[in-house]
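re the bet — no i am not wrong, look at it urself. input seq straight from the record:
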Amino acid sequence: MKIREDQWPQIAGAKRWDNTYEQQANRTWTIRVRQHEDGRTLVYAAYDSQYQGEHGKRAGELLDAGADIPAAIRRVGESAGCEECIDDCIADLPAEEI
């Protein structure tokens, strides 16, 4: 899927790596949430590894307006092996008035 980033701004995200500096990381975990002005939301995650013979994972969901975004972050994060980023990404979502 290709998106126009100007039409799908990032509203939340989390990233971790296995080294002191991201540039020296052997493994990285990323979850991003983008939302269109019409309310549709894209949640996607990636696990990448620099180790020989170890493969990365990708996952994502396109949600209709009004969908449960935190639940989607949890599903996508678990599917891509990004469990350590899930809570940070949910916490990064914009606050909602209740």
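see?? The CA atoms of residues 14 and 85 lie 6 Å apart. told u. also Residues 69-79 form the longest helix (11 residues). so pay up
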